[in-house]
Inverse folding.
């Protein structure tokens, strides 16, 4: 555990696998996951899997990762009891896991530090990454600067425009930002372009994947590096309240912050797990990112999972006010948790998310990321359902500074 | 003998490589694709691959992305792909569909295999379907009597090459380079080694694709491969032509040059 002088253990990364919560050798979570990629990439994926398998059981790697998490990312992050906010949640006790307080302002730093260390072990000097909101891009550029790696970020041209501040941050950190102008010019197209780069430059380059989607072993590796969120939170909430929470809430785009928050609780049967997807302008409008709630099973970006697609398997473009949730796929482990019933997934509209965004700012003096605001909105409703005896842990995955442009427009500030 | 076996046997008897042309369905238009593919056959292509346009073509370079995007904007559906196959197969050329996996997955493997066979299609090339995930598709294809072609790459280990060729019928597609589709200045020297390594594991014909754009390059590849696959170079010419008829004239010139190349 990452506290009181002890360091991360392999168990903190990977869990115990006892409940089928680890994929099989082909990277399958039930029927989900696997690898649907050009054969040219298979050796690289095998190499990443092998190097990771070794690293996660290597005390030296765990020490290095733990050191960076503490002295660079600012872990452990605290829990915050939000009493005034809780009054709007039917009096249920809402407790926030403050990933917004990490360096770079979002949970993404956990995964990128782990994968940047892995890049060194792979003997590669260049990293590429996709980014939607820009948070994963900024985090990757940060880790690349820290560890002296060349860094190229693919970002949809539409996203570059709505997240101009993050583009500037990445450039300042020494990264090259490539605007992607094909397709919907958002996250899914940035991922396509990053895969094209990877297949061309795989000898020198690691694809520092930003979420728990994509081909095996990315869903497993990214989850393991994000898992620290739930590992810490579980220990902290036991210290704070003397018992496990009744529910854990998190926003779901690709699903990395949610899986990071959920995973340490999967074995705790009394703890409900709730994921909140972006319902955008509402299900009926067709402008949403409700992959798990309204999508169907298919293959996107190398894995079998739930996908927004038409009757012939063409990807349907998603919509959300939050760039980080604007993705028509989702990590295969979430697909598996959904179908097994262990986790429940809901939709939160742009308007509901923005109301929660504003409420947290006014009641607690915390400006959350719009992504995280989806989980807050979910917790407000869930609290009214569960009642005043309940404790609800919400993963506040990031801070809202990057969203000021959107907020100014939305609220006419 | 299957259509593909006949094609490769004939090419071998002529002591030359087969010429394989790729065009997406629905490009430059639904009927235009059938006409363009027919032009390729008349100019000397032995095999035609009809691309099934997909929204997320992560193995394709800018030229094919552009063509596929236009095709989707034209409203191309799987029924149009089947109609294109039917039209092209009527010329007597062995006609395959090249597609990412998800459209088949969603359409239903058995239904797709049956419809393709009924359209006269010879089989499929599925660049993102790995041996590990291929069993349902191989079973459906075998049931419908169509071939399944998969890809090997320069990065493939011996073990992977064996796993891939064990899933192939018809021929094996050797990707000449590490990268996406698109014509290149020169064909990667790694291609020849990959063909040799592949032959060690199979008696199936081995065709080379990715980066072939001129008759001279076709000749170079034909010296060591059983087939030469050309896509982006044809598409580039159609994209650059002022109209469909001019596009057909232009690809006919290139295809004839390539057909000479594989006979050198």
């Amino acid at each position: 555990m990452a506290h009181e002088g002890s360091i991360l253990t392999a168990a903190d990364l990977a869990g115990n696998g006892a409940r089928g919560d680890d994929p099989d050798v082909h990277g399958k979570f039930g029927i989900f996951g696997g690898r649907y990629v050009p054969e040219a990439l298979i050796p690289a994926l095998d190499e990443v899997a092998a190097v990771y398998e070794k690293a996660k059981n290597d005390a030296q790697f765990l020490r290095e990762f733990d050191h960076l998490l503490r002295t660079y990312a600012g872990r452990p992050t605290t829990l915050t009891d939000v009493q005034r906010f809780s009054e709007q949640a039917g009096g249920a006790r809402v407790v926030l896991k403050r990933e917004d307080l990490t360096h770079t302002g979002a949970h993404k730093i956990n995964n990128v530090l782990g994968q940047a260390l892995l890049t060194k072990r792979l003997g590669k000097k260049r990293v590429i990454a996709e980014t939607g909101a820009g948070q994963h891009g900024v985090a990757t550029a940060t880790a690349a600067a820290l560890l002296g790696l060349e860094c190229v970020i693919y970002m949809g041209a539409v996203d570059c425009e709505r997240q101009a501040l993050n583009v500037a941050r990445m450039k300042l950190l020494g990264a090259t930002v490539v605007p992607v102008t094909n397709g919907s010019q958002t996250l899914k197209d940035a991922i396509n372009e990053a895969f094209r780069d990877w297949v061309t430059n795989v000898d020198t380059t690691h694809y520092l994947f930003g979420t728990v989607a994509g081909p095996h072993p990315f869903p497993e590796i990214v989850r393991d590096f994000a898992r620290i969120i739930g590992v810490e939170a579980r220990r902290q909430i036991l210290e704070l309240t003397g018992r496990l929470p009744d529910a854990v809430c998190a926003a779901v785009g690709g699903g990395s912050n949610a899986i990071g928050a959920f995973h340490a609780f999967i074995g705790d049967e009394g703890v409900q797990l709730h994921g909140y997807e972006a319902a955008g302008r509402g299900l009926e409008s067709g402008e949403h990112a409700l992959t798990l709630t309204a999508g169907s099973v298919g293959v996107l970006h190398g894995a079998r999972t739930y996908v927004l697609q038409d009757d012939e398997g063409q990807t349907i473009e998603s919509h959300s006010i939050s760039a980080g949730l604007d993705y028509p796929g989702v990590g295969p482990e979430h697909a598996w948790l959904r179908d097994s019933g262990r986790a429940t997934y809901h939709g939160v509209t742009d308007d509901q998310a923005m109301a929660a965004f504003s409420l947290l700012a006014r009641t607690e003096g915390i400006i959350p990321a719009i992504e995280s605001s989806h989980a807050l909105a979910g917790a407000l409703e869930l609290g009214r359902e569960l009642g005043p005896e309940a404790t609800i842990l919400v993963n506040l995955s990031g801070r809202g500074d990057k969203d000021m442009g959107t907020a100014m427009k939305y609220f006419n500030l | 003998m299957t259509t593909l076996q006949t094609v490769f046997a004939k090419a071998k008897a002529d002591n030359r490589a087969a010429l394989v042309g790729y065009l997406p369905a629905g490009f430059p238009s639904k009927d235009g694709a059938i006409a363009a593919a027919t032009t390729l056959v008349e100019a000397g292509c032995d095999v035609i691959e009809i691309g099934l346009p997909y929204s997320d073509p992560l193995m394709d370079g800018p030229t094919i992305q552009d063509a596929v995007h236009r095709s989707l904007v034209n409203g191309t559906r799987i029924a149009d792909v089947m109609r294109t196959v039917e039209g092209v197969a009527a010329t007597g050329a062995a006609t395959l569909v090249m597609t990412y996996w998800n459209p088949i997955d969603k359409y239903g493997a058995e239904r797709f295999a049956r419809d393709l066979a009924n359209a006269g299609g010879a089989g499929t090339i599925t660049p993102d379907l790995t041996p590990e995930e291929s069993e349902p598709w191989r079973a459906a294809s075998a049931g419908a009597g169509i071939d399944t072609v998969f890809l090997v790459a320069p990065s493939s280990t011996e073990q992977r090459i064996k796993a891939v060729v064990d899933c192939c019928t018809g021929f094996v597609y050797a990707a000449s380079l590490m990268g996406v589709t698109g014509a290149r200045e020169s064909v990667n020297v790694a291609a020849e080694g990959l063909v040799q390594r592949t032959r060690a594991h199979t008696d199936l014909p081995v065709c080379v694709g990715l980066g072939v754009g001129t008759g001279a390059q076709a000749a170079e590849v034909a010296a060591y491969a059983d087939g030469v696959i050309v896509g982006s170079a044809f598409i580039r010419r159609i994209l650059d032509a002022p109209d469909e008829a001019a596009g057909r004239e232009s690809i006919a010139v290139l295809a004839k040059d390539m057909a000479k190349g594989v006979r050198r």
The mean pLDDT of chain B is 96. The domain at 4-261 of chain B is CATH 3.20.20.70 (TIM Barrel). Chain B has one domain: 4-261. The first strand of chain B starts at residue 18 and ends at 24.
